[in-house]
Amino acid sequence: MMKSKLIRITTVPISLKILLKDQLKYMSQYFEIVAISSEGKELDEVKKDEGIRTIELNMSREITPMRDLVSLVKMIFIFLKEKPDIVHTHTPKAGIIGMIASWITRVPHRLHTIAGLPVMEATGKKKSILLAVERLTYACATKVYPNSYGLRDYVLQNKLTYTEKLKIIGHGSSNGIDTKYFQRTKEILGQAKQIEKKYQLENKFVFCFVGRVVKDKGINELMDVFDRLCQKHNNITLLVVGQLENSLDPISSISEKILKNNNNIHYVGFQNDIRPYLATSTCFVLPTYREGFPNVVLQACSMELPCIVTDINGCNEIIEDNKNGLLVEPKNKDALYYAMNKIIENKELPTQLSLNNRNDIINKYDRTIFHQYLLEEYNKVLKND
After folding, report:
1. Quick one: 267 and 360 in the same domain?
2. I want to staple 102 with a disulfide (CB 3.0 to 4.6 A). Which of 47, 107, 164, 337 is the partner?
3. How far apart are the C-alpha atoms of 128 and 118, rounded to whole Å?
4. What residues form DSSP beta bridges with 31?
């Protein structure tokens, strides 16, 4: 029996490689899978690691009408040639180009996952443009999947589409997480010891941030608050794991100065394997302004870390205040200071907050469970032909 053809699209290939890791390989058992994304070594890695066919089509992450039109025309020709049964897009630019192209070519099932919306932090004319783009994306789609309940509420509040078109897969997330990978094994603890020795972290309270080092992730607030905490506590450290992105959403010059000059902050850049850094840490902190459903919080919980996160959609669906972490108001430096200071001074609190973290993640968000949920959804969609 011939397999149905499923095309998955992201704007940049690192999203295929990291955010959808193992999902394409799993689905290839049941579908003919083709992945489309912009050029980059990660696209070749996806082809090899997931065992699927890939197509290179450059798409811009910024608002670039003429370049986007070229990408749209190329996408239309790909769909006319490939004749997919399902097109499933992720990320805003891939969403608008993929959904318009699949609507024009009459692909029967046009699916789009929402996993974080830049429009939530935009203002003025840019916000109006981004809202219009989202409305058009969802209008062209036959089904839209917010990856958190908070995102679904935002979509409905802003009347971007109607309730019947929306559905959340499982408990949320776009891919779940590999809980067997994100655990405190002997090997990972050994690597953590090396990091501890390298940065002289012995007997210190270690905060850890993992993510893009940009304004929207709350880095400005984190730098200011941690710098102030260092004046009160001499045994604290902050590990910052992630890449500076000065072109799209730069942090302030003051924050960049603190990042580079505070001797208690260790900026280690992007890391392929974040597990040793999480295993070295006492508490994970993510003062982000907006999220879809943050994988890194799932990963930190799976590594048995208490978490301080902002009380926004996605984050507050994983973290329950004073149960497995602390919730703080976004952009509120005083609230972040209070929470970080509280977990430093209350010696028993980190252990109390991390007790049930891993089991909760395994029960709700294990990747194998999510893949089964998604497969059921694909089969249900195809049966509605």
Report:
1. yes
2. 107
3. 12
4. 4
What does the pLDDT profile of the chain (385 residues) look like in tens digits? Answer: 689 999 999 999 999 998 899 999 999 999 999 999 999 999 999 999 999 999 999 999 887 889 999 999 999 999 999 999 999 999 999 999 999 999 999 999 999 999 878 888 788 988 999 899 999 999 999 999 999 998 999 999 999 999 999 999 999 899 999 999 999 999 999 999 999 999 999 999 999 999 999 999 999 999 999 999 999 999 999 999 999 888 778 999 999 999 999 999 999 999 989 999 999 999 999 999 988 889 999 999 999 999 999 999 889 999 999 999 999 999 999 999 999 999 999 999 999 999 888 999 999 999 999 999 999 999 999 997 6
Helices 357-365 and 295-302, axial angle in degrees (round to 10): 130
* Residues 6 or more apart whose Cβ sits within 8 Å of residue 327: 309, 310, 311, 315, 316, 319, 321
CA distances (Å), origin 270, targets 37, 240, 277, 359: 21, 9, 12, 28
Number of H helices, E strands in the chain: 17, 12
HSE-CB at 285 with a 13 A cutoff on CA atoms is 32
- Helices 219-232 + 333-345 axis angle, to 10: 50
Q: Are 29 and 371 in contact (CB under 8 A)?
A: no
3-class SS of residue 64: coil
Place of tokens 């070229």: 70
What single-letter DSSP state applies at residue 323? T
Note the residue count of the chain.
385
Domain residue limits at 322: 186-364
Q: The sheet that has 143-146: what strands, in order across it? A: 53-56, 31-37, 4-9, 86-90, 109-114, 143-146
User: In total, how many domains does the chain have?
Assistant: 2
In angstroms, the CA 222 to CA 303 distance is: 22
Q: Which residues pair with 54 in a beta bridge?
A: 35
**CATH label of the domain that carries residue 88:** 3.40.50.2000
User: SS3 for 285?
Assistant: strand
Confirm whether 181 is domain-assigned: no
